[in-house]
Amino acid sequence: MKCLDKKRIKMKQGETLALNERIMLSLVSIGEEGCPFIVCMTYAFHTTDKLCFILDLMNGGDLHYHLSQHGVFSEKEVKFYAAEIILGLEHMHLRSVVYRDLKPANILLDEHGHVRISDLGLACDFSKKKPHASVGTHGYMAPENIELPETMSNEMRTVLEGLLQRDVDKRLGCMGRLAEEVKEHPYFKDIDWKQVYLLKLTPPLIPPRGEVNAADAFDIGNFDEDDTKGIKLTEADQELYKNFPIVISERWQQEITESVFDTVNLETDRIEQKRRAKFKQNNIYDDEKTSDLILQGQLKKNTGTFGFSWQIRYTKLYPNRLELHYEKGDKDPEVYTMERIEHIDSKECKGQKTITIHLKGGNEPRLMLSPQDEVSWIEWKKALYDTLVASQQHLTVSEKASKIYGADVSSATSTNVNSNQQSSSGNHHNSLLSGGNISTMKKNNVAAAALQD
């Protein structure tokens, strides 16, 4: 958050400058994504004594500070920073904003080392008329007076001479095609501008984390209040800022969405970790990395004579079966092999969105499961459907191989499933399941290869 003291603004007669910055920030910040090379604004408001801008956080310091620490940048390093700055300026120019205060101190770095242009107090809108006033920072206002060193490459020399051309009509970037003229200069011939925009280029300097990237941390935001003791804010002063508050809706919505999403995710992860710890204690939880488990988690199963009640089952999906475990782990799990499943669809039951698994024969014609949320519902339905299709294709290949070559693959599969069912009630069944399935898959792969030949 950037805060400006109203009394200090009044003392320096900077009201117009402060209001202008808010207007310029709104012009360059509007859009679904803003610009990744400008410090954009999300919203602004004011209090009795402060003007407040909510801006992109840039905690990597500015180029002036890093130049003082690093020394002169190489041409390769300069090219990286110049490319990102060019895209930031292009974004402004396309919105009829001219910056007018380009200097290292106004180029901020993010935590990854990418740059953003900051401080639009001197920027102006040239959509209606061209600016004529002479503004800027002393020392940067007449760069055409500099002498270019002999060690500089010819490409860099010509691009600088083009940008510093006194005749505006002959100046690089002012001959009709704007930033494209600069981007097509031989100095940038090895630059992929799409990669630059996507922040894919590796920054030459990564700001140290956990440190204040400034010459003196105590000087940041430190102002002498004695300067403004005699300044009084009147109703007329406050009236100047009546239209100051603004919200950039797209950026505000994105910020709120991300904040809520992160909060919900953290809470969900905490609950999930707690559940997993509980199921690990009861030897129910499986590690996907060490078994052939496809998906696992808590689902509600529709139970009861008339299907009016729901009970929690820790559900595990394997390539050849579905297991429903009791929470305490004190009973054998309910096991449904893929061979028993006829088809899968979805429906609503007692206000619950369910995945309905239709079974072949038996006392239980169907199985109704309800995940905890919409995302889980989509994930489980897809996983179950894909697993069933893969299993049916697997059995079809096995049957063909058995008929043609006499290889009793289907019986091997059946035997394997039975042995897996028996072992699943024990606490050490994962290794047996994995080993059995791998063996069956190898046999079926041989049969499938033979059929293709």
UniProtKB/TrEMBL annotation:
Residues 292-389 form the PH domain. Residues 413-438 are annotated as: Disordered. Residues 1-294 form the Protein kinase domain. PROSITE patterns: AGC_KINASE_CTER (PS51285), PH_DOMAIN (PS50003), PROTEIN_KINASE_DOM (PS50011), PROTEIN_KINASE_ST (PS00108). InterPro entries: AGC-kinase_C, Kinase-like_dom_sf, PH-like_dom_sf, PH_domain, Prot_kinase_dom, Ser/Thr_kinase_AS. It comes from Rotaria magnacalcarata. GO terms for molecular function: ATP binding; G protein-coupled receptor binding; G protein-coupled receptor kinase activity. Keywords: ATP-binding, Kinase, Nucleotide-binding, Serine/threonine-protein kinase, Transferase. Transmembrane segments: none annotated. This is G protein-coupled receptor kinase. Residues 413-437 have a biased composition (Low complexity). The keyword Transit peptide does not apply. GO terms for biological process: G protein-coupled receptor signaling pathway; regulation of signal transduction. It comes from the Eukaryota. PANTHER family: G PROTEIN-COUPLED RECEPTOR KINASE (PTHR24355:SF18), G PROTEIN-COUPLED RECEPTOR KINASE/RIBOSOMAL PROTEIN S6 KINASE (PTHR24355). The keyword Kinase applies.
